[in-house]
């Protein structure tokens, strides 16, 4: 009775999409850790500078892999979107690519943020003194801010990335990857927080504006949203006019 | 997606003429005294109409194609809905288990082992430990296999009373004894002063309501909540009493067993599911988590005992919001069940008294009475064993991992993705499928990978406060 066609689009709704994306991020993290692990094993343990360098190398690989997986996810979503569009009633898929981009970025951000911060949060409950061995006493608060910035950045990058892939603007793509690398690199300046937190937040703001413009927002639409004007949506009227009255 | 689902049922109203098969993700579980055996199977009601619908040799080709398209859309939409419907209980179960493991130290303390795993893991050499854990896993799996075969044999020879008694004893044990221990340990952890009388009252009420909800009738949500709670309790017992390597080995082997038992033609679970389909019965609801009420309409019931059991197992609850308001009105009017509601209930879940007339009436029911059944209420079923073993995996990960929350989270995501994929396969194949293999494989891979590879990396990064 049911033709078993491509039902890969079935779980791609709502929460399950978040789950799939989180999964992709995890896989990218896994591969990056594998690379780092192998490199650490092959290297000299005693050399601290080398270890730090290897950590940096691992982080760079991880960033690149994340972007690669984001791209792979974009491809997967494109295919699914086409599938959804062909079987839907009006030839359009029910989820726009922009929504998918947003959800994709958000899930990446959430899983990345959670992975970065959850152990710190768990430790912050227990008894202890921050920075007792000479490290910065602002560790927790800066971690919180950095994680927030990262989550927001991932969301914005998701939007811009998908849009750039859709319109084949590879310059924008490169810019996204570069800004990710830059952000990650800036965190290597910790604990000099003035040098790292400030620029990261500036980057977050700029990327946010860029994403807003890419998603089609403008100053006018922002004003309209803020003034809470009810827009007359004629499409809704059409649907309700065509709707068959439900028989209970 | 929600807008589509809103107006599609109306679109379908005039055209629903066949009995849509339930997309079940059912795993039958078998309770022994101290643990559940997990048999995963999903099941589809084989109705004669569904077999004819697939035939393309039809004069009205376009109608068939249109039906197929609509069916596909339904598959897609309800596939997605089913995924969400199962995510919530699985997540809840895992959350309860992880929360308990993290707070109550009783379940991570080593207090001996079960008799099913007699070999200890406190050995001098790694080789000895490996050997012991392999032996433990082998014993456990063979016990599970024996119990499953016993269950299938009992079911085949219609020893329903024995099965029912077995299930009742195990749920009694779980609902009273294990929850008493759990409550005691929680009180100890939080240093709450409690007297025995209050505890007796609490446990008595909890247990009795649980027995009623699970084995008889009760509100759907309450039944689901109880099933989740007993799965969590069972998982906690496993986490406490299974030593580490044994636990991982058992998880791995049981997913292989699950695959074999459900998909092989002579597998015990497959036979169980097929026998249930032949007799047109539902499998034991005490062992299966169902996201909606079980539909028993249009069943050819010749066996009065089975029918009685089947009707006993169905839980009454609202089907569509419209029906519920009607029921509530009826009940509010009389303070009891009105004739109209009773008639409706009889039409839906089958007559309570097995009289030939009522049975004939049920069978003679026109199939377009199904149109008032909200297609969104067709639920998915997942066996309790799946809940248990998913929770065991996540619980063990949170108990013993050095990466702590990262590992737990990774396993959690992996299991849910596995569940997602399994549901996708269910939507494609539409027959009983094992729910354990994919999720457990992902979970195990992610556990070991995260614990050994990702955790040192993230640890170093967090130490220096680097972000990736």
Automatic annotation (TrEMBL), chain A:
Q: How does it sit in the membrane?
A: Multi-pass membrane protein
Q: Which UniProt keywords apply?
A: Membrane, Notch signaling pathway, Transmembrane, Transmembrane helix
Alphabetical GO CC annotations of the entry are: gamma-secretase complex
Tell where it localizes: Membrane
Give any single GO term for biological process. Answer: protein processing
Q: Kindly list the residue ranges recorded as spanning the membrane.
A: 22-42, 54-73, 100-118, 138-162, 169-189, 195-213
**UniProt xrefs under Pfam families:** Aph-1
Q: Which family does it belong to?
A: Belongs to the APH-1 family.
Give the multimer and partner information: Component of the gamma-secretase complex.
Role summary: Potential subunit of the gamma-secretase complex, an endoprotease complex that catalyzes the intramembrane cleavage of integral proteins such as Notch receptors.
- Write down what this protein is called: Gamma-secretase subunit APH-1
Organism for this UniProt entry: Patagioenas fasciata monilis
Q: What is the lineage of its organism?
A: Eukaryota, Metazoa, Chordata, Craniata, Vertebrata
Automatic annotation (TrEMBL), chain B:
- Keyword Protease among record annotations: yes
For this protein, the record's InterPro entries field holds: Pept_A22A_PS1 (IPR002031), Peptidase_A22A (IPR001108), Preselin/SPP (IPR006639), Presenilin_C (IPR042524)
Membrane-spanning intervals of the chain: 83-101, 134-155, 162-184, 196-214, 226-242, 248-264, 409-429, 435-454
One GO biological process term is: membrane protein ectodomain proteolysis
Pfam families registered for this protein in UniProt: Presenilin
> What topology in the membrane does the UniProt record assign?
Multi-pass membrane protein
Identify the stretch(es) annotated as Disordered.
1-66, 306-378
Q: Name one GO molecular function term.
A: aspartic endopeptidase activity, intramembrane cleaving
**What sort of enzyme, by top EC class, is this?**
hydrolase
Swiss-Prot/TrEMBL keywords: Apoptosis, Cell adhesion, Cell membrane, Cell projection, Endoplasmic reticulum, Golgi apparatus, Hydrolase, Membrane, Notch signaling pathway, Phosphoprotein, Protease, Synapse, Transmembrane, Transmembrane helix
Principal location listed in the UniProt entry: membrane
Compositional bias (Polar residues) spans?
12-30, 50-60, 312-325
Which EC numbers does the record give? 3.4.23.-
Q: Where is the composition biased (Basic and acidic residues)?
A: 31-47
Keyword Cytoplasm on entry: no
Q: Quote the subcellular location field of this record.
A: Cell membrane; Cell projection, Axon; Cytoplasmic granule; Endoplasmic reticulum membrane
What GO CC annotations are associated with the protein?
axon; endoplasmic reticulum membrane; gamma-secretase complex; Golgi membrane; synapse
Which domain of life does this protein belong to? Eukaryota
Domain remarks in the entry? The PAL motif is required for normal active site conformation.
**Family, per the entry?**
Belongs to the peptidase A22A family.
Question: What the protein does?
Answer: Probable subunit of the gamma-secretase complex, an endoprotease complex that catalyzes the intramembrane cleavage of integral membrane proteins such as Notch receptors.
Q: How does it assemble?
A: Homodimer.
Protein known as? Presenilin
Taxonomy of origin reads: Eukaryota, Metazoa, Chordata, Craniata, Vertebrata
């Amino acid at each position: 009775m049911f033709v078993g066609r491509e039902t890969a689009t079935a779980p791609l709704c709502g929460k399950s999409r978040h789950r799939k994306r989180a999964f992709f991020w995890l896989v990218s993290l896994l591969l990056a850790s594998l690379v780092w692990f192998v490199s650490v094993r092959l290297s000299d343990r005693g050399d601290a500078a080398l270890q730090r360098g290897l950590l940096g190398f691992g982080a760079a690989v991880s960033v690149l892999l994340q972007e690669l997986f984001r791209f792979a996810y974009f491809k997967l979503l494109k295919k699914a979107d086409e599938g959804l569009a062909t079987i839907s009633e009006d030839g359009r898929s029910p989820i726009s690519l922009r929504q998918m981009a947003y959800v994709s970025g958000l899930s990446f951000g959430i899983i990345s943020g959670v992975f970065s911060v959850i152990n710190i949060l768990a430790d912050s409950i227990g008894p202890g003194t921050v920075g007792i061995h000479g490290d910065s006493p602002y560790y927790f608060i800066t971690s919180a801010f950095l994680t927030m910035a990262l989550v927001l950045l991932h969301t914005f990058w998701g939007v811009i990335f998908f849009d750039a892939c859709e319109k084949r603007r590879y310059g924008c793509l490169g810019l996204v990857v570069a800004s990710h690398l830059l952000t990650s690199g800036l965190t290597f300046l910790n604990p000099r927080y003035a040098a790292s937190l400030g620029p990261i937040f500036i980057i977050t703001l700029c990327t946010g504006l860029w994403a807003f413009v890419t998603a089609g927002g403008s100053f006018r639409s922002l004003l309209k949203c803020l003034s809470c004007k009810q827009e007359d949506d004629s499409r809704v009227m059409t649907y309700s006019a065509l709707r068959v009255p439900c028989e209970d | 997606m929600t807008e589509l689902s809103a107006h599609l049922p109306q679109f379908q109203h005039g055209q629903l003429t066949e009995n849509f098969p339930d997309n079940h993700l059912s795993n039958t579980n078998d309770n022994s005294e101290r643990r559940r055996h997990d048999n995963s199977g999903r099941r589809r009601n084989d109705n004669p109409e569904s077999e004819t619908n697939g035939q393309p040799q039809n004069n009205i080709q376009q109608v068939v194609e249109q039906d197929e398209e609509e069916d596909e859309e339904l598959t897609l939409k309800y596939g997605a809905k089913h995924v969400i419907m199962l995510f919530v209980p699985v997540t809840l179960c895992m959350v309860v288990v992880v929360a308990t493991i993290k707070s109550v130290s009783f379940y991570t303390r080593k207090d001996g082992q079960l008799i099913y795993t007699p070999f200890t893991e406190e050995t001098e050499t790694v080789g000895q430990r490996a050997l012991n854990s392999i032996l433990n896993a082998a014993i456990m799996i063979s016990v599970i296999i024996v119990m499953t075969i016993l269950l299938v044999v009992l079911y085949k020879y219609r020893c329903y009373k024995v099965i029912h008694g077995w299930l009742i004893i195990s749920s009694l044990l779980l609902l009273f004894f294990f929850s008493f221990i759990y409550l005691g340990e929680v009180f100890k952890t939080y240093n709450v002063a409690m007297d025995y009388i209050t505890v007796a009252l609490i446990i008595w009420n909890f247990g009795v309501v649980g027995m009623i909800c699970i084995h008889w009738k009760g509100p759907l949500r309450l039944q689901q909540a109880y099933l989740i709670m007993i799965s969590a309790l069972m998982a906690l017992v496993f986490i406490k009493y299974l030593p580490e390597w044994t636990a991982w080995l058992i998880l791995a082997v049981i997913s292989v067993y699950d695959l074999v038992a459900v998909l092989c033609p002579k597998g015990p679970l497959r036979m169980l599911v097929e026998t249930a389909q032949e007799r047109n019965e539902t499998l034991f609801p005490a062992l299966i988590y169902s996201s909606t009420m079980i539909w028993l309409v249009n069943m050819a019931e010749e066996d009065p005992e089975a029918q009685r059991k089947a009707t006993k197992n169905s839980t009454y609850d609202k089907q569509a919001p419209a029906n519920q308001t009607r029921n509530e009105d009826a009940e509010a009017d009389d303070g009891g069940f009105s004739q109209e509601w009773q008639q409706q209930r009889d039409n839906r879940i089958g007559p309570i008294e097995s009289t030939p007339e009522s049975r004939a009436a049920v069978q003679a029911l026109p199939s377009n009475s199904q149109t008032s059944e909200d297609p969104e209420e067709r639920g998915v079923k997942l066996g309790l064993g799946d809940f248990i073993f998913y929770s065991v995996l996540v619980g063990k990960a949170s108990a013993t991992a050095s990466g702590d929350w990262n590992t737990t989270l990774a396993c959690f995501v992996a299991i849910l993705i596995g569940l997602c994929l399994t549901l996708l396969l269910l939507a494609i194949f539409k027959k009983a499928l094992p729910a354990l293999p994919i999720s457990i494989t992902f979970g195990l891979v992610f556990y070991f990978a995260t614990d050994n590879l990702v955790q040192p990396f993230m640890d170093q990064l967090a130490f220096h406060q680097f972000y990736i």
